[in-house]
Amino acid sequence: MGALAETRGAPAPAGAFRPANDEGQNAEGSARALLRFITCGSVDDGKSTLIGRILYEAGAVFDDQLTALDADSRRFGTQGQAPDFALLVDGLSAEREQGITIDVAYRYFSTEQRSFIVADTPGHEQYTRNMATGASTADLAIILVDARKGLLPQTRRHSFIVSLVGVRRIVVAVNKMDLVGYDEAVFRRIEQDYRAMAAGLGFSTIDFIPVSARDGENVTQASRLTPWYRGPALLPFLEAVTVAAEVRDEAGFALPVQWVNRPDLDFRGYAGMVAQGRLRIGDSVAVLPTGRRSTIARIIAPSGEVSQASAGQSVTVTLADEVDVSRGDVIASLADGPVARQELRARLLWTGEAPLREGAEFILKLGTATANVSVTQLQHRLDVESFAEVPADNLPMNAIGLATLRLDRPLAVLDYAGSRELGGFILIERLSNQTVAFGFVEELRPAARLGAGATGQEASLPLRLRRALAHEVGRAGSAQRRAFASGLSWRAGSSLMLAGATIALGASGGVAATLAVGDFVLRPLVHRAHKRLWRREGAGELQDGAGI
Amino acid sequence: MIQLSHLQKLEAEAIFIIREVAATCEKPVLLYSIGKDSAVLLHLAMKAFHPGKPPFPLLHVDTTWKFREMIAFRDETARRLGLGLIVHINEEGVRAGVNPFSSGSRLHTDVMKTQGLKQALDKYGFDAAFGGARRDEEKSRAKERVFSLRSAQHRWDPKNQRPEPWRLFNTRKAAGESFRVFPLSNWTEKDVWDYIALENIPVVPLYFAAPRPVVHRNGAWIMRDDERMDLLPGEVVETRMVRFRTLGCYPLTGAVESEAASLTDIIAEMRSSRSSEREGRVIDHDGSGSMEQKKQEGYF
Questions:
Q1: Complex ipTM value
Q2: Which of A101, A527, B45, B214 fits a disulfide with A122 by CB distance 3.0 to 4.6 angstroms?
């Protein structure tokens, strides 16, 4: 191992040109990695109070801000003489006067362990679009539930939207435990209800924490009032939580062109942020939607000329050939890249005041491209109470539905599950210039279309099996698939060693083979059961088993 | 996979926003206020269009009460980078004798800064103005969009802001409307200083501690930058080791006593500080909704 590690750390061989800053810096290490999260839930569940409390206890509130808070609390506070922490985040006068959150507020704080960006989102249904905005960039969502009230329609709606925008890690904070006497039964019932409600939402992990935001119980320190709860308090939990690593880098690369940079006749560069994958000098590319081909000649990153760039970097590239490229085009690898489509099936979160009707026309913005679009068909609307898909001929404000859209020109797209950058879009109303919908491109391959139609039935069994399999072994060519293959070969190798050892100890070939096959099959099952046991205790996972 | 650091992500996002403005607005301008945030913003704009130059000029709304060192630094920066610089002064305000002392901070800021800015934007017909404001500065700014739409009268309507999911900015506007655009929205004060240190960005020397002539007034150390500042009875000019956490009009900007004379010192001092950077700004203290109100009236 030592020798291998040394080789990896060795400098590049002479002759291999490597510009300065070519390798990404990782100065902050994974422990300091940024966590973006949101708080959501129904109105008066205490979201802003919770965030204010966390900011206060994490030391992110300065003395002069505390002085202002005291004055504000006396004027607008809802907590008597005590400081009203919600006033730390409710920054608009209208919010302080009404005691509600209207717009999403972004707050920034860090602890010894980690940096955080938190979006405090409104609970009122009227401001759902602001909640969805906060969710669209979050890694994790804290869903607050009032212990006295249990699940409310907004809890369900927000859970659905959080799922729709692709957040997979959920923490349910059961708040106002002080008002139910820190009763475990109340907490367990809400946990049970929530798990049942969220069963179909595709969350990877859901954790439950009993808190009192007002009194600060289980917020930064484990509370003595909930001896029956053995998990961590909320802030320590957030400091330790791991969120699924982005695997976009493994996909084919895509660079939506933002701006054509032509300072003089000698330079023609295409600037944009890499949406996914990695590009290198010399890579063959296609310009979508036209499909013209060329190769990458130069890459200019913020640090200067580089030989490669990857997802999330803002770069400028030049191509080896004179091809026509303009804003809205996507420079992409030949395989695994986005596809040009003129018709899209997409889920819509409707944020316009007037309901959406079939036949309506809008301006669509996806990546850096815009196109005129008409909503040709409205398949169904989602019932927030039952999550059932019901036939609909319109979508009122804050409703979610599935629609077919016809563009006036083809655009390079990916499905939203694969790419937020090229699968998420907005619809803009031409006259008012208002943003009236968030859109999520559905699975693009016709063969894998959702079985669910207007009848509201679940996806067909073979499709669900395929999805479950893909969840386990990853998609072809993905990092997860390779990790699975590596695990499999390690498993096979160690079972073979067991067989060898058995033979060396004098057993027959038959016994050795039986043992090896038994070990190969049973050990993963036992391992899984064992892991499940520990997960219930709230144990985290060691990277790669930490070599144990 | 190239793992981007926190600062690299912020840098990439800011460059994306700057390019988005250049690509979708007709006549952008960069509001250059000479402070550290403007320095970072300008640095990012230079990167965004490299090897070309930013396709927009710099605009400084001069209240005529800025520190002299700021003005020298401003002119030197524009010259060094070879960028066009527009300096606008509200001449009506000057003629009316508006100043921070007898007019009060509120009127002075409104006339010389807010009205001055509106005059300049209207005069040149700019439809998008970059600002270096960050959401962590103040709680009404925490509610601000990256692309903040202003009416033809430059008003901000905080209750009716457009949603900005992902990185999708709706950059459409009606004739006469304009955007204030904040590429540093997601940066914190610490990020700004860390980036200045990492990228070696020049900043006004007033940020570093040095012996300066100051007067103690209304609980703040005010630097007497020129003879226009009359001393009140009992006031004496003292020389103290001070520096500034933010820069504005000198009579309205409190200095902090400090020994921090280098970037490393500044970052260390900021980490242990118990007060926000805006504490030294006199104009923020006119009531808890005052920033929001100023913004509604057209202040950045």
A1: 0.90
A2: A101
